[in-house]
Design brief:
The chain has helices at 7-38, 66-73, 94-104, 123-134, 153-158, 180-202, 217-222, 235-245, 266-283, 285-288, 296-306, 314-336, 344-364, 377-386; strands spanning 53-59, 81-87, 109-114, 139-143, 165-169, 173-177, 212-216, 249-252, 258-262, 367-370, 373-376. The protein has 393 residues and is of the alpha/beta class. The strands form 3 sheets. A 7-stranded mixed beta sheet has the order 3-2-1-4-7-5-8, sandwiched between helices. A two-stranded parallel sheet has the order 6-9.
Length: 393
């Protein structure tokens, strides 16, 4: 005990030591659990069969890496697949680019579907529905337009299907950041959100992720069809609940797929994270509550206070916890082949400083921005119930 430490002081520092130990234990455990599935050498047994697959891809506007991501979807090493591109507006700037790729790959079955059937308050779901209905195959992948697909994309998804599987997904992994804001987004996507998703799945709490979703048609049809995904304001939340109601699980692919970021603006990173926070709070409030403790802030402060319990300086306690916390993140990123570099640590520290405020904002507001449209959780919930119009995609 430190000089002059009273019984109450010892109790307080002991309590802080417990908080610090708990935080560090969770950080180490979650990183190790994610590491086993995300490292570059993590592989699942190849699928025993390669059934024909439909890829449904909603599109909206030209993005920085549109040419690259479109090229990747036409370069898959898979014996039989069709691609159904979905547009709400035929005049969208991405349409000529898509048609050019389709013309350049006549040997791959592909179609561009145009139409805006508003079955829900979710613009993406409304864009996807026509593709789902026209899909020719039993196995259907719904994939966002900014997913950079490796050649074995479909095989890796199918290899994770089990007898208890209802959906296989991949969280987005930020890649190729070109400025610090993009590196901050990598810190959110990779060693934070993807890490916790994989850790949760490993202990039996898998959640669907809308970036890439592999469905077997009968699973979704038995749960009410594609329209059932409009029951929530986010289709991945609705997918998770539908799968769980069926007594099935959401599984994640080994070695999740990259989303190239390029240059980002801080305001856009904040808006995206705020949207996701408010959607998580609206759809899975019980899991959103403890998110505030996933920031390093509380563990580092507790470790500084707890140092007195061991007659050490607060600086030493802080440094010890800091090294473990971010050392585990660096180990995960290195083993998984995710972006690192000199700005990796500052981006992770800034993310953790932002997280408590982001959590507060998740609870205190309903507004969010989706593809430039101002929306609210309450409005989209009401629109989903009534079938009322929503802002265009």
């Amino acid at each position: 005990m430190g000089p002059g430490m009273t019984g109450s002081g010892m109790t307080f520092t002991g309590f802080a030591a417990g908080i610090a130990a708990s935080g560090l234990t969770l950080q180490v455990l979650s990183s190790v659990l994610a590491l086993s599935r995300c490292r570059t050498t993590a592989k699942a047994p190849p699928p025993s069969e390669l059934p024909p697959v439909t890829i449904v891809q909603p599109l909206c506007g030209v993005e920085s890496f549109s040419r690259e991501t479109l090229a990747s979807i036409f370069a898959l090493d898979y014996p039989e697949y069709e691609i159904l591109f979905c547009l709400a507006d035929g005049a969208d700037a991405i349409a000529p680019l898509v048609r050019g790729f389709m013309d350049a790959h006549p040997h791959i079955s592909s179609r561009l579907l145009v139409g805006d059937e508003r079955i829900s308050a979710n613009p993406k779901l409304n864009n996807v529905v026509k593709g789902w209905r026209q899909a020719q195959h039993r196995w259907i992948v719904i994939a966002d337009s900014n997913v950079l697909m490796p050649r074995d994309y479909i095989q890796r998804l199918l290899s994770r299907w089990r007898s208890d599987t209802g959906i296989v997904c991949s969280p987005p992994i930020g890649s190729r950041p070109e400025n610090f804001a993009a590196r901050l987004e990598c810190a959110f996507l990779n060693t934070y959100q993807a890490k916790w998703q994989y850790a949760g799945e490993r202990v039996g709490y898998g959640f669907a992720q809308g970036k890439t979703m592999l469905w077997r048609r009968d699973v979704l049809e038995n749960g009410g069809g594609i329209e059932a995904l409009g029951a929530e304001i986010a289709e991945d939340a609705a997918s998770t609940k539908l799968v769980h109601r069926a007594g099935l699980r959401a599984h994640l692919v080994n070695r999740p797929f990259a989303q190239p970021l390029g240059t980002r603006r801080f305001v856009d990173v904040w808006r995206r994270q705020l949207r996701w926070a408010r959607l998580r709070r609206a759809t899975f409030a019980i899991y959103f509550v403890p998110e505030i403790f996933t920031s390093s802030v509380f563990t580092l402060v507790a470790a500084s206070i707890a140092a007195g319990y061991f007659a050490a300086s607060p600086v030493l306690g802080f440094a010890f916890a800091f090294a473990i916390w971010y050392g585990m993140e660096a180990m995960l990123a290195l083993a998984a082949g995710w972006p690192m570099g000199v700005w990796f640590l500052p981006a992770c520290v800034l993310r953790d400083a932002i997280l408590p405020w982001l959590w507060v904002q998740g609870w205190t507001g309903d507004q969010f921005e989706w593809r430039g449209n101002a929306m609210t959780v309450r409005e989209t919930e009401m629109a989903a119930d009534s079938g009322a119009p929503y802002p265009p995609n």
